[in-house]
């Protein structure tokens, strides 16, 4: 190996290094602590790959089987590690294949930097081979993007990219680098970005707003907290827990807020939204104060806005000014990082209890248990349920696995029933609802939290959208556990067809391949379970495995997920059957 | 909520792609723009976009929040016509023969306070700055004389209230 590659890239260079743009890209990544990246090579990004080869002792590049997989892996990594995920691809189709993952990261506020190669600058706009306007294409789904056409721009732009991706409300950034900028040499020095004049990611909390919030909390008799991913992104789990424990206020989570508070915490009253729990949904329309923390009132959470918490005063702890009064008009906004707002609230909050109000939750919980949960987790019928499969994962992971889910029925069931004891343990595609997310995201999730058990729970439909990433899992020997809950249907769409389209099952039934043979073809240990009596041992064996492991659980074909708030209906119209 | 004309003023960095990023915010919401213009602003290196939309107050507020959220945008405002001083600029190309043969055309130019920018043997060009109704009226008045070309700029506007961009830039510095 050449001597120059042995120079630690993170060292501050007294004298500038005269290097290529491609080498600068790699040194910038290392300077930002990005020593693990996901990608796929190709013509326009080859100079960077050549440098990745030289730097392979310092920077681990994971070759995914599709660029979409690289983005989801980077997202999974970001979600469990709290760091910026990095995905890299070539121009044209390589770049466009990133778009789904970028859009997913944008709507779920995941810090990610994507680097794409681009045709040489003199060819821009000439419809050159593998040229595509990825800046134009990615603009609506990135927090920021930039096309580099000169090597000398690389350090400043890369530093900005990481700063923007991780600061404020995090999000994806795409940097497109023309091939000539990768080849050209220049004097490299690196300085981290600490601020951009047009960008103020951390607003200062207003003391007037804080006073008003405290007053509303003080007056409330039936207060209720709904929290989202902001608690996790703001590293505010401890402050949040203290707030709940002191204030005595019951709390429920949005799908991305899951795991910020352990599932067995007494203040944790479950999930809000379309397939959320009965009590928190119904009581949203009974509380007299709704405290929304780091969440954005997504339509899957609120249902019909005209009938959402109209009786309540609302306090919104929110970092992103564009979310303020966007979907729901609120009474008080604490416009700051929720960690700061919670710290300030905790200084002044009075200890309280709400026994009668809490009893309302308990009573409704019992109804949900009797009508829904009991038959999901302790079914009497012959067919296996998704619920009992998830419960078995809880048992054998001691409620402490990272659960990565895809999109659909299995996702709702897993989020309803999975147990978590630590934060950053729930990785799912929430806002975009990207089928195919889970398998590659699990790769990143495991690499972002290598000492933890990572279980991907996936439906048979979504699994086949990115199934090729089994190759990545084998090549990298990533010890993820893959559970496919197979009902031979696109289950959630089928459920809607059953309930709202008179059982016209248009293109939702799947004739599936032999998933065990396929996994074995990728040289991954695999097993299939069809009967209840086999489930316990199979999940136990899977969890005990030190290697990647695939388990297919053949579940009841036409089970539905309940409770359910029909699309566009009020949270009060939640159905238990 | 009632629809009316709003003028959105955006102060931003002059970066390639920002125009696309801002217009994408309207595209995503299926909103057509009445006009869009961009120029330098009173602050060196800060660009100003003036966007005119027909919308309701609630919608325009949310759009402005989304515009302001963009990393390269310093500040965005929205105003009603009453809160701004605004003008548009129009050019009218007419064949020269009508200027000399039709005395009436000279009266039109005079009474509309338009100016003649250039005159050649074949054509002459009239310029008129004013409100939409005024430039539109002149277009109608000139039409019978053979309007060879007509073009109108997007709205440019300044607000009656202070914008305070320098202060905003300073406060960003302090927050960062």
Give the SSE map.
The complex is a heterodimer of chains A (577) and B (176).
Chain A (H helix, E strand, L loop, with lengths): L16 E4 H11 L4 E4 L6 H9 L5 E4 L3 H15 L3 E5 L3 H4 L2 H9 L4 E7 L15 H5 L5 E5 L5 H13 L5 E7 H5 L1 E4 L18 H13 L3 E5 L2 H4 L3 H11 L3 E3 L14 E4 L6 H7 L4 E5 L5 H4 L10 E6 L13 E4 L2 H11 L6 H23 L8 H12 L4 E4 L3 H9 L8 E2 L10 H11 L5 E6 H4 L6 H7 L4 E6 L4 H10 L14 H7 L3 E5 L2 H13 L4 E6 L23
Parallel strand pairs in A: 2-3, 2-4, 4-5, 5-7, 6-7, 9-10, 9-12, 10-11, 12-13, 13-14, 15-16, 15-17, 17-18, 18-20, 19-20
Antiparallel strand pairs in A: 1-8
Helix pairs in contact in A: 1-2, 1-7, 3-5, 3-18, 11-14, 12-15, 16-17, 16-23
Chain B lengths: L3 E10 L4 H11 L4 E8 L5 E10 L1 H13 L3 E8 L3 E12 H6 L1 H9 L3 E5 L3 E8 L1 H11 L4 E6 L3 E4 L5 H11 L1
Antiparallel strand pairs in B: 1-3, 1-4, 2-3, 5-7, 5-8, 5-9, 6-7
Structure, described:
The complex is a heterodimer of chains A (577) and B (176). Chain A is an alpha/beta fold. Chain A has three domains: 3-188, Thiamin diphosphate (ThDP)-binding fold, Pyr/PP domains (Rossmann fold); 207-361, Rossmann fold; 382-555, Rossmann fold (3-Layer(aba) Sandwich), CATH 3.40.50.970. Helices cover 38% and strands 17% of the residues of chain A. In chain A, the strands form four sheets. A six-stranded parallel β-sheet of chain A has the order 3-2-4-5-7-6, sandwiched between helices. Chain A has a six-stranded parallel β-sheet with strand order 11-10-9-12-13-14, sandwiched between helices. In chain A, helix 1 (21-31) packs parallel to helix 7, helix 11 runs parallel beside helix 14 and helix 16 (386-397) packs across helix 17 (409-417). In chain B, the strands form two sheets. In chain B, strands 5, 6, 7, 8 and 9 form a five-stranded antiparallel β-sheet that branches. Chain B has two domains: 4-85, Alpha-Beta Plaits (2-Layer Sandwich); 86-152, ACT-like. Chain A, domain 2 (Alpha-Beta Plaits, 2-Layer Sandwich), CATH 3.30.70.1150. Chain B has helices at residues 18-28, 57-69, 96-101, 103-111, 132-142, 165-175; strands spanning 4-13, 33-40, 46-55, 73-80, 84-95, 115-119, 123-130, 147-152, 156-159. Chain B is an alpha+beta fold.
């Amino acid at each position: 190996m050449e001597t120059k590659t042995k120079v630690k890239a993170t060292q501050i260079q007294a004298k500038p290094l005269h290097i290529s743009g491609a080498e600068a890209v790699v040194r910038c990544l290392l300077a930002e602590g990005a020593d693990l990246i996901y990608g796929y090579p190709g013509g326009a990004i080859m100079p960077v790959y050549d440098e990745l080869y030289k730097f392979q002792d310092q920077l681990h590049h994971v070759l995914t089987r599709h660029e979409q997989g690289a983005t989801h892996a980077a997202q999974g990594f970001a979600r469990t590690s709290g760091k910026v995920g990095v995905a890299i691809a070539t121009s044209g189709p390589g770049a466009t294949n990133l778009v789904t993952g970028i859009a997913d990261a944008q709507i779920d506020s995941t810090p990610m930097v994507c680097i794409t190669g681009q045709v040489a600058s003199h060819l821009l706009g000439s419809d050159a081979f593998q040229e595509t306007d990825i800046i134009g294409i990615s603009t609506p789904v990135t927090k920021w993007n930039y096309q580099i056409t000169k090597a000398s721009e690389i350090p400043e732009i890369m530093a900005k990219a990481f700063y923007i991706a991780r600061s404020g409300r995090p999000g994806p950034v795409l940097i497109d680098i023309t091939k000539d900028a990768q080849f050209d040499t220049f004097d490299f020095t690196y300085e981290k970005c600490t601020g951009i004049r047009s960008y103020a990611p951390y607003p200062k909390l207003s003391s007037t707003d804080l006073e008003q919030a405290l007053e509303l909390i003080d007056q409330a008799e039936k207060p209720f907290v709904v929290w989202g991913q902001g608690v996790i992104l703001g590293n505010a789990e401890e402050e949040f827990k203290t707030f709940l424990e002191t204030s005595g206020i019951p709390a429920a989570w949005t799908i991305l807020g899951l795991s910020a508070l352990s599932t067995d915490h007494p203040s944790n009253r479950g999930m809000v939204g379309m397939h959320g729990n009965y009590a928190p949904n119904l009581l949203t329309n009974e509380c007299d104060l709704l405290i929304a923390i780091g969440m954005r009132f997504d339509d899957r959470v609120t249902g019909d806005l005209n009938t959402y918490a109209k009786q309540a005063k609302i306090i919104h702890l929110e970092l992103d000014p564009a979310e303020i009064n966007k979907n729901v008009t609120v009474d008080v906004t604490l416009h700051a990082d929720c960690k700061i707002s919670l710290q300030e609230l905790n200084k002044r909050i009075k200890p309280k209890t709400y026994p009668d109000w809490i009893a309302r939750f308990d009573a409704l919980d019992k109804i949900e248990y009797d009508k829904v949960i009991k038959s999901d987790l302790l079914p009497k019928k012959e067919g296996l349920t998704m619920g009992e499969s998830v419960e078995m994962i809880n048992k054998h992971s001691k409620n402490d696995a990272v659960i990565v889910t895809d999109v659909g029925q299995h996702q709702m069931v897993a989020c309803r029933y999975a147990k978590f004891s630590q934060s950053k343990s729930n990785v799912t595609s929430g806002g975009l609802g990207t089928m195919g997310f889970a398998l590659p995201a699990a790769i990143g999730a495991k690499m972002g939290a290598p000492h933890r058990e990572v279980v991907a729970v996936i439906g048979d439909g979504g699994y086949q959208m990115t199934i090729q990433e089994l190759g990545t899992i084998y090549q990298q020997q990533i010890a993820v556990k893959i559970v496919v809950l197979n009902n031979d249907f696109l289950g959630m769409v089928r459920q809607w067809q059953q309930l709202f389209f008179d059982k016209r099952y248009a293109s939702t039934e799947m004739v599936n391949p032999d998933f065990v043979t396929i996994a074995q073809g990728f040289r991954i240990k695999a097993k299939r379970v069809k009967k209840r009596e086999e489930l316990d041992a199979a999940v136990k064996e899977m969890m005990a495995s030190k290697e990647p492991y695939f388990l297919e659980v053949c579940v009841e074909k036409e089970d539905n997920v309940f409770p359910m708030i029909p699309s566009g209906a009020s949270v009060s119209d939640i159905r238990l059957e | 909520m009632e629809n009316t004309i709003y003028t959105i003023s955006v102060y931003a960095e002059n970066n390639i792609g920002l125009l696309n990023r801002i217009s994408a915010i309207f595209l995503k919401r299926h909103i057509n723009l009445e006009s869009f213009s961009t120029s330098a602003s009173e602050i060196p290196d800060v660009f100003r976009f003036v966007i005119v939309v027909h919308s309701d107050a609630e919608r325009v507020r949310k759009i402005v929040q989304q515009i302001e959220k963009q990393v390269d945008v310093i500040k965005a405002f929205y105003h009603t016509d009453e809160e701004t001083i605004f003008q548009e600029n129009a050019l009218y190309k007419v064949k020269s023969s009508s200027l000399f043969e039709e005395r009436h055309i000279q009266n039109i130019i005079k009474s509309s306070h338009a100016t003649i920018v250039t005159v050649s043997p074949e054509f002459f060009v009239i310029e008129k700055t004013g409100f939409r109704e005024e430039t539109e009226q002149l277009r109608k008045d000139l039409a019978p004389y053979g309007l060879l070309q007509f073009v109108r700029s997007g709205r440019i506007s300044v607000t009656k209230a202070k914008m305070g961009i320098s202060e905003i830039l300073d406060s960003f510095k302090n927050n960062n």
